[in-house]
Fold this protein.
Amino acid sequence: MFFTVEEISLYAKRARLTSRKVSEELRGWSWPEPPVLPPSSRALPVSDLSGSICKSGRIIYLTYVKWMKVEPSVEALRGGLIHGAYVDAAETTRRLIYSGEALDGSTLRFLMADQYYEALKRLREYSSVPNFETLVKWIWDRATSTFSASLDKARDRSHSTKETLASIAVPFLVEYPLDGSLVGVSPNARADAFLPQIPMIVELKTGRRRRSHELSVAAYALAYESQYETPMDLGLLCYVRTEDGITYRCELLVVDDSLRSEFLEERDLRLKVLEEGVDPGLPKYCDQECPFLQYCGGKVRS
Ligand code: SF4
């Protein structure tokens, strides 16, 4: 998650040693033909297409046909806060290096300590999340220590420009923009992070592991391939835990034929609900974390 150059090299090695075989018709650049060709010219965000919490797709009908609004759950807000603090810490570090204010690790640490209070203001939409300030502090401190150590290593290399220092201190991109419209994904999709050296999309998740998280990685891979005509066979799924500090575990995921096909099935089901505007009804079981549970009155698996 707070990747260093050394970590990315290890992932690159694992990527090279990981066998994969992807059928040509399941590549993002095969979008003019089924099965990648979307059943509608409309598009949805990755989180809505990847099955998330509603197996029948009724959540798409309620959200985009009936335009019903529900308050985000505390867990969703917590995830948004963790993601927002992560992005802010990476962007702030780069800005301090580019501006010339922080060109060594100790200055970066000093300035980031000040910037923490500014970050709290920028993230105030999440201030209702329990332990708001502590969560931001954990992420901020972890980012600061990783990026400042990397900055000092970068300085050891001679003739380092600000560009070089920034790209070694923070050797990955956050909120990486993708136009997924050719494959039914939103034209302004944003992957949590991107390792251009491999290339590999990174998805950050909080909460329990879900199959839909893997399908989200497949969605970004297909969008990337449709836009850049370059294979993306691997993704990184990182689960973030915040108990007595921040910990995370990243899993290397092969975006193989079965993952691609499963995503395309979910995508088709949801885009058809959107296109036809017809209520698909309730699934056999609803997810207990679904924000529409009270409205739909669906059964939850006990
Ligand atoms: S409550 Fe059930 S049917 Fe309604 S949107 Fe949620 S999962 Fe779908």
User: Anything to note?
Assistant: The first helix runs from residue 5 to 17.
